[in-house]
Amino acid sequence: xxxxxxxxxxxxxxxxxxxxxxxxxxxxxxxxxxxxxxxxxxxxxxxxxxxxxxxxxxxxxxxxxxxxxxxxxxxxxxxxxxxxxxxxxxxxxxxxxxxxxxxxxxxxxxxxxxxxxxxxxxxxxxxxxxxxxxxxxxxxxxxxxxxxxxxxxxxxxxxxxxxxxxxxxxxxxxxxxxxxxxxxxxxxxxxxxxxxxxxxxxxxxxxxxxxxxxxxxxxxxxxxxxxxxxxxxxxxxxxxxxxxxxxxxxxxxxxxxxxxxxxxxxxxxxxxxxxxxxxxxxxxxxxxxxxxxxxxxxxxxxxxxxxxxxxxxxxxxxxxxxxxxxxxxxxxxxxxxxxxxxxxxxxxxxxxxxxx
Length: 356
Prior knowledge:
By secondary structure, the protein is α/β, with parallel strands linked by helices. 44% of the residues lie in helices and 12% in strands. The chain has helices spanning 2-5, 9-19, 45-65, 97-111, 138-150, 170-196, 237-247, 257-265, 267-288, 304-307, 317-323, 334-346; strands spanning 31-34, 70-75, 79-80, 94-95, 118-123, 125-127, 154-156, 167-169, 197-199, 223-229, 252-254. Helix 3 (45-65) links the parallel strand 1 and strand 2 (70-75). This is NAD-dependent epimerase/dehydratase domain-containing protein.
């Protein structure tokens, strides 16, 4: 994909089209699951437009041309929600920064594609054994492991931290997307819009419409089936931190008032001070592990994105009631953390510092 992104537009479109060609002797694809997009929060707007907006739009256009029965697009939690409210699909949420803006804009572009059997699945904060990116839980788990190793409390900024930080297991993200594909394939886009369609509001700069091919004008109303997916834990930041820290035999707390105030004005400087402790500890843990795992892809480094206050809450009631989806992993708890950590230890990508 990285080579494709640097190619001419016609080559990119041809490459996208080739992805839809089934192996010889097999039927055309019925379902398309769209996981494309740039998930690094610090990428420029130009990169987000090219890697997220334009690629997904090309895939959607090709899927519509091929008349696939279901096109399911993932929407990561690149939003800030309100701390209270229904948290349903009708509640207005604010895209977070450049990344959130163009991921959201992508939904409008896909929603406006004629005859595309689109379903959008919007997730809470994901976790699971192989989910490793900025919006996921796993960086916090790595940090908690460090403080458990040091036998010191794990601390966070943004006290008191009682705002929603709802979670969802990757098994349920996959399960919900599959269930939505089956649901869409039975009824088609028109009926799906009437049952579960939601307005995807314009959240960009109006001037961009004339600059970016494929953007939908702010005056055009875009309706598309949208479902949230989260587990039943509905944890706050405090509860999330307590659950993770206690698994590693430590406690969860917040930095003092002075540090929190400093973080509001110079978060980058505060982060570097905080990171120094657990990055050094993580290095020791992976090199003294039995066996050592010096080349693991996981890290305890917490960047600006991870340290900012983020309110994530997306009620899954509509998905349960309309599609009939039942959660496979309804609770975020010690068992779910342990399952994740043990699987990573088994594949030798997570440090094993347990006493023999």
